[in-house]
Amino acid sequence: MSIELARDNGAPTDAERRTASPLAVRGLTVSYGQKPAVFSVDMTVRAGHMTAIIGPNGAGKSTLLKAALGIMKPLAGTVTVLGQPLAWQRDHIAYVPQRASVDWDFPTRVIDVVLMGMYGQLGLLGRVRAKHRGLAMDCLDRVGMTDFATRQIGQLSGGQQQRVFLARALAQGADLYLLDEPFAGVDAATEQAIIKVLKALRDAGKTVVAVHHDLSTVREYFDDVFLINTQAVAEGPVETTFTQENLQTAYGGRLAGAQMDALADTLVEPAVGGAPR
């Protein structure tokens, strides 16, 4: 005999949420040698939202992202994209890696980097036509880099390089954008330019997931938050999940009082009875 659990107010089942989610991870475990970097992690990303992955150094944030992309092979777990296996949906994903992981000495021009994002559109011969260059220039314009189209990528500043890689992601025309520390080591102007583009993607119905390190901007920049410290700590809307309790759990109580005081205006405060307000 089977028993079907009641569903409150027509709430979707876990299976239905996974099917609708642009990125759903279940039981993901990744190990470096004998030590797990990510252990049995579940994550369900909401469509059309911006999600921050946060946690202390070494918590597995970048590892989670790379494993979800198939860049790293997990020991266990499954990843679905738009309700289908990852291997079937790669054309729907755009990825911006950590700037420090890129070989910036590779001799290529800015516009050629952006055109690399169109490999799926160029066909077997890879012939670049005027329409492709026009799209590449449009993507550079969206990140404020049109004047640098013919510059060697290695000649740019860190912030400019990050903008170019975002333009390459835009050129893919993806539905899901995954970014690993997109604001690390960039100037304030570049950070604002990047967040403006990401919010425009979100407003156009795209989904954005970013590994993020600056806790003070989580509430301003993101809709949802996923906290991790090797294992998942909490996930959900910023308004209910970005709490002092969840942060201290994720960071193992290592956030100093001064840090928490600085975040006071951005954290969710518990109401009487324990519910967030």
TrEMBL record:
* Protein EC: 3.6.3.-
InterPro entries noted in UniProt:
AAA+_ATPase, ABC_transporter-like_ATP-bd, ABC_transporter-like_CS, Metal_Ion_Import_ABC, P-loop_NTPase
Q: What family does this belong to?
A: Belongs to the ABC transporter superfamily.
This protein is called High-affinity zinc uptake system ATP-binding protein ZnuC
Every ABC transporter domain range: 23-255
The record ties this protein, via PROSITE patterns, to: ABC_TRANSPORTER_1, ABC_TRANSPORTER_2
Instruction: Tell me which UniProt keywords the record has, alphabetically.
Output: ATP-binding, Hydrolase, Ion transport, Nucleotide-binding, Transport, Zinc, Zinc transport
Does the record carry Ion transport as a key word?
yes
What residue ranges are annotated as transmembrane?
none
What molecular function terms (GO) are annotated for this protein? ATP binding; ATP hydrolysis activity
The organism that produces this protein has a lineage beginning with:
Bacteria, Pseudomonadati, Pseudomonadota, Alphaproteobacteria, Rhodobacterales
Q: Which domain of life is it from?
A: Bacteria
The answer to whether the entry has keyword Ion transport is yes
**Which is a GO BP term held by this UniProt record?**
zinc ion transport
Record the organism: Pseudosulfitobacter pseudonitzschiae
